[in-house]
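Problem: given the chain below (261 residues), write out its structure.
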Amino acid sequence: MASRSDDLARIHAGLLAAAEAVRPYTPGEVAFETKAERDDPVTEADHAANGVLLDLLPRNGEGWLSEESADDPDRLGRDRVWVVDPIDGTREFVQGIPEWCISIGLVEGGVPVAGGILNPATGELVLGAVEEGVTYNGTPASVLDTDDLTQATVLASRSETRRGEWERFERAHFQVEPCGSVAYKLALVASGRAEATFTLVPKSEWDVAAGTALVRAAGGRVTLADGSEPRFNQAHPRFPNLVAAGPRMSAALLRLGLNGA
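Solution.
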């Protein structure tokens, strides 16, 4: 079993190497194709970063799950699994919006235990592990926590807000701030840049594994909208929704019935 310091060192090295692989591609000017199954964009930068991470991260006995790799069911029999998104927020990357990131999560026994997120466009690096804590650009960080929704900034999906799906929360009185990549939003919550984020549409494990580890490591809670905790490295690696916040803020949000509409 690798030590947690070794895991974090591998995550850090992977983030930097993937960022270097992406560097030749200019956000806002990069060519892309569209994935037929979900109408999502994909670029050569996604594939370049994926290749680097696949070379660097998994060792003998460890599994692999990535948005840009064919899923190998062998991972289901592995206790330690790397769950990565080479570029989370490719839509923002293509549009030149600086809300995309490289996302690396480590899952043990179905639970995200370590993760790292790097936004090369803003230079933000969030790294951490459960029982080890979280750093934001090398400085210790933690979640903000309050049960007063009027004092909270909640990061929302740009796509969801554009479609009007957040209009039903106008009377909840928290401040809604649209943002791109869900992995990036989770990192901002983990590092105390916002109180919470939640999703109203399904997310894949690779979208949220690293961020879930970071929020948990920073003293927060990550649940589904019904209050249950998500289990990772599943045969169908997708969740219907996700809620991430400090414990008191999480309870306040769940009382709103986020899965009720």
